[in-house]
């Protein structure tokens, strides 16, 4: 039931504060996380992990790409991420003490399931499924399971499933950091950030009117570029996927530092460039990339915190984001991109909840 919402997608976007709260329930104490929810000896097994392979498709793959930044930085564990359709058909080299993590909303995606089955025949320390459907094949077949509590997601475009996957992955990162006895500040900061997250997400949802306005000028475009750096690069990838999926506008994401290596040639006044620009350690680098875009007449749309001090000039639109803790920033900055693609699709009159040619769950290859 859509309730008062025009589309399931919009309803699901607005359900995110609750979905995040539900996903975190019973997982956080004041200064540690409850690793026992994975199993009785989990903390000891987490301690042994030296490598992580993450395998997933589509939006769930993007969640994995964000997590790689967290896992390597905060837990000090080497991590690689791959789309399941590639992973399942190649010979994978598995170093000692590697955990395989699959991520899926449905738990029935054919390639992801095949990847898990393949992995179970390799020399992994264990397998973990992060999934939104408790009784799914993926959850039944994985060694460990970490359930997201997004509730049913009807819209084909994944929204609340993605942000709750990120929440589960940040929880996993914290659990690994704890098992590896990393600095307690890392664990405490993540717990604080996760606890504040639902309120912050509520706040960002209030930006909808400004984003709706922005969507008007966007809808006549044929192409768009999304830029980010660090963990906001996969957030940009997810923003581009969302836009192409429901509005059929061709969108591509680049790590902002790659701009000069090719895509800058595309930039002109007809090319909107969306930048995901939180106030983090990479902001200054990103700013110089954005100047390159402006110098070529590109229309810039910045999602940035006021404190970032990005220059305003003609052709530059800002959406002011609240200040956020670094670790949850990729989650928070996902929201305006969901709202942007939703409103662009509305202006274009496409079928938001059931985009052409796509199925909610891809159970065949
Ligand atoms: O159910 P899964 O998470 O395994 O699905 C994977 C992809 O098919 C899915 O995320 C797809 O990319 C979304 N429709 C994108 O919004």
UniProtKB/TrEMBL annotation:
GO molecular-function term, one example from the UniProt record: glutamine-fructose-6-phosphate transaminase (isomerizing) activity
Record-annotated SIS domain positions: 42-182, 214-355
Entry protein name: Glutamine--fructose-6-phosphate aminotransferase [isomerizing]
Signal peptide: none
EC supergroup of this enzyme: transferase
A single GO cellular-component term on record: cytosol
Organism listed in the record: Halopseudomonas yangmingensis
Active site: 360 (for fru-6p isomerization activity)
Gene (UniProt): glmS
Whole-protein residues included: 245 to 609 of 609
Keywords tagged on the record: Aminotransferase, Cytoplasm, Glutamine amidotransferase, Repeat, Transferase
GO biological processes: carbohydrate metabolic process; fructose 6-phosphate metabolic process; protein N-linked glycosylation; UDP-N-acetylglucosamine metabolic process
